[in-house]
Write a structure and sequence with these properties.
Blueprint: E1 2-7, H1 12-22, E2 26-31, E3 55-58, E4 61-64, H2 66-77, H3 89-120, H4 128-157, H5 171-186, H6 194-205, H7 207-216
Parallel strand pairs: 1-2
Antiparallel strand pairs: 1-3, 3-4
Helix pairs in contact: 1-2, 1-5, 1-7, 3-4, 3-5, 5-6
């Protein structure tokens, strides 16, 4: 039996969605973030040394990292579904976007979250002007320009096809959903980029996406 070690408001929501798309039976073992720190509980380190989610177990296999989990599930259980045929241009695009999601798209979004908290969070009054000034300069000089370039790039790429890997929905779209959701929540994505907003609408309309939300519980983007 497949077991998803599911942390609330985390990337593990994508794994639940993929399992629903594939129609695979699975169990959920739930973990809750600390309400003050928003960190994962120590119990997750008993499953994987890094103590992060998602983690998937099947038999004697324990696998972390959402991209690796998606590749494993599609290759082992997909029976050719949610992946373009080998040797095609769409397959190359599929592989690219599968890795782009965490390798390129998420780092500036995580940095923005960190520096937003630094700029707005409580701190001793005598360091507040310095810390907030540094945060504003890093955001305006590095983070926000990177986010703008990436969103413009993704918007243009969706002009080439309905989904990131072409005309068909694939597991790369499941992987890309998290950075697009995060960009809409805090990265500046809005109606000025209509193709990305339409993409989000198509995602939210999928029955498997809604079933995953029902099973996984209330979901909001944190990191």
């Amino acid at each position: 039996m497949i077991v998803v070690h599911h942390l609330n408001n985390s990337r593990s929501q994508r794994v639940l969605w993929l399992l629903e798309e594939l129609g695979l039976p699975y169990e959920i073992k739930r973990y809750q973030r600390d309400p003050k720190t928003m960190l994962a509980p120590a119990a997750l380190r008993e499953v994987h040394p890094l103590g992060k989610s998602p983690v998937l177990s099947e038999g004697d296999l324990t696998l972390a990292e959402s991209g690796a989990i998606i590749e494993y599930l599609v290759e082992r259980h997909g029976r050719g579904r949610l992946i373009p045929p080998a040797g095609t241009r769409d397959r190359l695009r599929y592989t690219y976007w599968l890795h782009f999601a965490e390798g390129s798209a998420m780092p500036p979004l995580v940095m923005k979250l960190v520096f937003d908290r630094l700029e707005k969070g409580p701190m001793p009054f005598f360091v507040r002007p310095i810390a907030r000034g540094i945060a504003r300069r890093v955001k305006s000089g590095f983070i926000e320009p990177n986010l703008t370039r990436q969103l413009d790039y993704m918007e243009a790429e969706l002009g080439r096809g309905t989904w990131f890997a072409g005309a068909q929905f694939t597991a790369a779209d499941i992987q890309m959903s998290f950075p697009v959701e995060a960009a809409a929540a805090r990265g500046g994505l809005d109606a000025k980029r209509p193709k990305l907003m339409e993409y989000l609408g198509r995602i939210h309309a999928r029955e498997a996406y809604r079933r995953a939300l029902e099973r996984g519980g209330e979901f909001s983007i944190l990191t």
